Amino acid sequence: QDEETQHSLECIQANQIFPRKQLIREDENLQVPFIELHGESTEYVGRAEDAIIALSNYRLHIKFKESVVNVPLQLIESVECRDIFQLHLTCKDCKVIRCQFSTFEQCQDWLKRLNNAIRPPSKIEDLFSFAYHAWCMEVYASEKEQHGDLCRPGEHVTSRFKNEVERMGFDMNNAWRISNINEKYKLCGSYPQEIIVPAWITDKELESVASFRSWKRIPAVVYRHQSNGAVISRCGQPEVSWWGWRNADDEHLVQSVAKACASDSRSNSNKLMNGNCSRDFSNGGDLSDVEFDSSISNASGAESLAIQPQKLLILDARSYAAAVANRAKGGGCECPEYYPNCEVVFMGMANIHSIRKSFQSLRLLCTQMPDPGNWLSALESTKWLQHLSVLLKSALLVVHAVDRDQRPVLVHCSDGWDRTPQIVALAKLLLDPYYRTTEGFQVLVEMEWLDFGHKFADRCGHGENSDDLNERCPVFLQWLDCVHQLQRQFPCSFEFNEAFLVKLVQHTYSCLFGTFLCNNAKERGEKHTQERTCSVWSLLRAANKAFKNLLYSSQSESVLYPVCHVRNLMLWSAVYLPCSSPSTPADDTCAPYPVPGSSPEDQPLGRLPKTRSFDNLTTACDSSVPTTNRRSSDPSLNEKWQEHRRSLELSSLGNPGDDPFDGDSLSKQGRAPVGAELSVAAGVAEGQMENILQEATKDDVALEEHLKCNLETAGKGDEIAPEKKRTENLHG
């Protein structure tokens, strides 16, 4: 009786709160050209020139003769009419879609429909993730299957703070304590409810510090080196202003972090602390390339035997000029005179407005017909790779300070929710192999990005009434790009592959899952997103074979030291270039759910990395469509690239995202890859762009076949499932 009542309530909720809309067909003979998700309802089906176009409450679907565009609505940034018959759709992940119509009236009708569909929601429940979850729960309730937990992340995510404190070995008896001063977010709305601070710092002192830090984002410890006890802390900028304000409690807290490290190191490791770092940039200058290389190569090592607190490194992500300019707005930076035993380094990272401008330039470049003679210089002019280089250098400086010099580090930018999580999360990824596992990476994203208040709703543009374009910026995408650069340089060090990252990029914006909704944990709690939406980790789970890196070794390097110079970085073609993404076996923008009654490991997710992006989801999963193999011009297989990697003393193994089952068989036969005719960036074929980018010399067929043979053996039995069969399985 109770079960039937519960089922009825769930049906009422799904049917009445998220009712299906009536389908409007331009032609009675037209059918919906895709299988709808739970809660998805198609509103319009019509004809474009040589295509069928459909619009639902979740996606835009365009079926051309030989290719398919399948893009979530929230991934579309803008729609405009470039000429009287053509719609031009710009996507938030750098893709551009063009659709030609036969008449002006048709084009205008679809322009209005799409602009209405992609408008930021007036209330958060208008986002598809809520309808999707409600209908999923109804379906499984009607089947009397208990699948509610499949919407949730694992215990490693839900209990992350407690688990991480124990795993990193904080000395909670003498050095550190967990403060509940932010319980129910009463101190800071964009911080987690529990934070780690030195044991002798009182909550009253923390309140005083909060009044001096931007948005009350006080210095909070987020990482401890398990061998030497050095920690990483993060915060907002000090509110020095033109008046030159000071705060004694803030100065005391910063110095106490270093003292707690010394105490923690002695009590836990019984190790003696060494001397100060050999280079001091506290004169207020930015860290140049020459100084960076010098600071990395001229390590002081364990030269001092004095048992004393290490000199704390304050890493300001901004340039010195930008930090000083912030004083006019009430911000500023730490004055070394007032923070003894500390040094300040300015990294010169660009703000969100410069990053947005750079990304727009990159998108424009990637969607134009390439000019082989000028393409690389045009790429350089976007400054995208330069921005990645500075971010990697910043994280590497933190790694050197913590791992090599055993020094504590405090990281901040202006507000502490954009450049700060980029640096801290990247440094933790380099320092700790746990974060390079699938589960550990989930914990890293949850803690550094979600718990500490990166403004996903504003930066991605899917928040309530988030119409301010100046607030939008691909900050998280830029960080994922850096993770991809690390995957290329250390192909055996990550448990997840490139396909995992590509899918995470898409679902950062798609709003199929509720993980990246709202601006902070407080808002997500108020909106009950955890209870009312599915978690993206239910798709990107460790058991999902499609995202496994076959080259992963848990015995690989403990701490990663990447090459950060621009010349060693690669454009992320799987995300930014048309028709070049790795491809997962089926439309995994759909559901994370397995077949009722089966375990996640049994699911037909067999095809390992390379994921094609949203442009070709349908054909990517159809076993009747021949798949393209990875090109031998790929940098991981290219002879020139191999020699270059050896010169850098890096591993010469292949790209972890490369699919041994997705090679170059079709290109060798002279046929274009599936979907190459897609009107996304018309005229640009995958091979043409890759050859320009990577300056490939000649094919290394032998190496490719060797890698392919080895990995085929490892992945034997993982076959690609037809889309229809898999979708039926996913939806029971």
Automatic annotation (TrEMBL):
Cited InterPro entries: MTMR3_PTP (IPR046352), Myotubularin (IPR030564), Myotubularin-like_Pase_dom (IPR010569), Prot-tyrosine_phosphatase-like (IPR029021), Tyr_Pase_AS (IPR016130), Tyr_Pase_cat (IPR003595)
Region (Disordered): 590-670
Transmembrane regions listed in the UniProt entry: none
Database matches in Gene3D superfamilies: Protein tyrosine phosphatase superfamily (3.90.190.10)
Residue ranges, compositional bias (Polar residues): 614-636
CDD domains attached to this UniProt entry: PTP-MTMR3
Keywords: Lipid metabolism
Annotated organism of origin: Antrostomus carolinensis (Chuck-will's-widow)
Name assigned to this protein: Myotubularin-related protein 3
A cellular-component GO term for this protein: membrane
Molecular function as annotated in GO: phosphatidylinositol-3,5-bisphosphate 3-phosphatase activity; phosphatidylinositol-3-phosphate phosphatase activity; protein phosphatase binding
Domain Myotubularin phosphatase: 155-576
Active site residues per record: C413 (phosphocysteine intermediate)
Protein family according to the UniProt entry: Belongs to the protein-tyrosine phosphatase family. Non-receptor class myotubularin subfamily.
The keyword Transit peptide is assigned to this record: no
Binding locations of substrate: N326, R327, A328, K329, N351, I352, C413, S414, D415, G416, W417, D418, R419
Domain of life from the UniProt record: Eukaryota
GO BP: any one term: phosphatidylinositol dephosphorylation
